[in-house]
Amino acid sequence: MEQITELFQQNHEVLLGYLLQLIAAIVIFYVGRIIARSVSGLLEKGLLSRKIDKAVVSFLSSILYAILMIATALMALSQIGVQTTSFIAILGAAGLAVGLALQGSLANFASGVLIILFRPFKSGDFIDAGGITGTVDKIEIFQTIMKTPDNKRVIVPNAKITGGHITNFSAESTRRVDLVIGISYDSDLRKAKAILEQIIQDDPRVLPEPAPNIRVSELADSSVNFIVRPWVKTEDYWGVYWDTLEKVKLTFDEQGIGIPFPQMDIHIKKDVKEAV
């Protein structure tokens, strides 16, 4: 007992230093855990306020929490004298190996994070991306699930979406319907234009502003072409497109306005032999 007491008296300053380092490490770990929880909680609230899927939010916040806790643990170990350089080297090597093995998955993951943060489209939007045109059903971390107009379910990797152009047909509240209507050269040009103007004017789905644009656009090989460009609400686009084409055909037929179509004349030549 006397030897222990003597040893303590001789090394009490060193032991006190170790004790203070241990207390500081515990404090660092405790405070770091509080900070990690707070930061991940703020991230979760911020993402939920942007109406991002809860599963995705939970996944991202848990990843951030894990990263902050690893950093906190390394700081605490460093405080008590543990050499953390080797730990960092091991983590770096492991991360590199995993990254090389899961290169495609990590690219999809990173692309999913970008889609979630910058929101070039959302669930329910009609888009053209990754070579697929359809309605967005779900946005997940590694993939986006879309439904085509003929109700096929297509799963598109997120990296393929962010790697090319994205056309969002639902992003704006209004769209312009672009139609090209051709009439024959022997038809009444003014009458045809008046009919087109009347058809567009009678459709209640066509917006008054911006004003519809109806002009002669081209004197083609076999037709005089009009551009017909009314503005409509985005949800009325296809209805106006299809209904206008049908109405134009029916009205032109009633009013005697010809719509040209490709024709081919076949001439048969016979050799006539004179009788000797």
Descriptive overview:
Pfam families: MS_channel_1st, MS_channel_1st_1, MS_channel_2nd, MS_channel_3rd. Helices cover 53% and strands 17% of the residues. It is of the alpha+beta class and 276 residues long. A five-stranded antiparallel beta sheet has the order 4-3-2-1-5. A three-stranded antiparallel beta sheet has the order 7-9-8, with helices on one face. Strands 6-10 form a two-stranded antiparallel ribbon. Strand 2 and strand 3 form a beta hairpin. The longest helix is centred in the N-terminal third of the chain and has 48 residues.
Name the CATH class of the largest domain: Mainly Alpha
Structural class: alpha+beta
Report strand %.
15-25%
User: How do the helices and strands follow one another from N- to C-terminus?
Assistant: HHHHEEEEHEEEHEEEH
CATH topology of the largest domain: Helix Hairpins
CATH-scheme architecture of the largest domain: Orthogonal Bundle
Number of domains: 3
The residue fraction in helices comes out at 40-55%
Report Rg: 36 Å
Order of neighbouring strands in the sheet with most strands = 4-3-2-1-5
DSSP helical segment count? 7
Termini separation comes to 149 Å
Would you count the extended β strands for me? 10
Which properties best describe this structure?
single chain, about 280 residues, alpha+beta, Helix Hairpins, SH3 type barrels, Alpha-Beta Plaits, 3 domains, 5-stranded antiparallel sheet, 3-stranded antiparallel sheet, about 55% helix, transmembrane, ion transport, cell inner membrane, LSM_dom_sf, transmembrane helix
